[in-house]
Amino acid sequence: MRVLLAAVALAAVWGAHAQAPTNVLIHRYDGMGYQPCEPSIAVSPADPDIVVAGSILDNVYRSEDGGATWTRERLESPHGVFGDPCVVGSSTGDFYYLHLSDPSGKGWADAGLLDRIVCQRSKDGGERWSRGSYMGLNGAKDQDSGIGRLVRTYDLLVVTTIVDTWNHELG
Distance between CA atoms of 5 and 126, rounded to whole angstroms? Predict the structure, then answer.
């Protein structure tokens, strides 16, 4: 009898925790510009209710209720914003948003596209962002896919790919 009661209690607890989470739509594509893709998301270690996400091309999303509801803004920088977002949250509540550059704003029409990785910082949980600083400016070589991780509280490690030439004929 005790084994049966324990099994029923375990099944009740398991059933309560095994419910599927509710999907939340944070961006409905309107057909204009680039369709959002390549998402990056970070939860604040200082306050898990604050969640910040990014997607191509220049979208930044913010939630104050653990992801139940979201707001969307467009990220801007004098160095340009051209996708490949990587959002990192710090233990102090700051967020870092790494992305590709587009200094002229002309996209693929300008050879200066992708000339650096830009890092923008938010000190208020993703509400406002710095103008950004950059790394990797290296002549005609492109920078691609900046990936960031906080090693310690104030040490942001960034890994990037430097591209000498693109070969679009490889399949």
Answer: 48
Give the separation between CA 48 and CA 52, rounded to whole angstroms.
Answer: 10
CATH number of the domain at 59, please: 2.115.10.20
Rounded to 5 degrees, φ, ψ at 130 are: -65, 165
Domain encompassing residue 44: 38-163
Q: Is residue 21 part of a domain?
A: no
Whole-number Å distance between alpha carbons of 140 and 121: 27
**Can you give the pLDDT of all 171 residues of the chain as single tens digits?**
454 444 444 445 455 455 666 788 888 888 888 888 899 999 998 999 999 999 999 999 999 999 999 999 999 999 999 988 989 898 888 999 989 889 999 988 988 888 888 999 999 999 999 999 988 887 777 777 666 665 555 556 666 666 655 555 544
Classify residue 124 by burial, with Cβ atoms within 10 Å: 0-12, 13-18, 19+. exposed
Cα–Cα distance, 168 to 67 (Å, whole number):
38
Inter-residue contact 52 to 60 (CB < 8 Å): yes
